[in-house]
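hey so u asked for the seq, here:
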Amino acid sequence: MIEAVIFDMDGVISDTQILHTTADIMVMKNYGISLKKDDLIQLAGIVDKEMFGKLFSMYNIRGNIKEAIERKWKIIMGKADDAIKPIPGALELINKLKEQKFKLAIASSSPLFFINTV
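ran it, structure tokens below
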């Protein structure tokens, strides 16, 4: 019998992918690289360190990945309040599960400060 449900956060209960994509594009622009949404599709869901590592390698960037990640999250947090929306139907499902006394949890590779914001 099912007693608990674990949700992924980004893209499952919250529509945050455009926020991630926008920030990634802005960060890469600082390194002289112009990317479009479609350029990042294959990297969606990958942790930032690996994602920027792949991008830096692809474009021969000798930048500091930690600084790129910090810049990304500064951008995201500056836009978070206005940009984060729930995936259609997610809140209704969560509320029904709560009413039925399921234990609920969120799994995410996003930092805890962002999970709390969402």
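The CA atoms of residues 55 and 61 lie 8 Å apart. Residues 65-83 form the longest helix (19 residues).
lmk if thats what u needed
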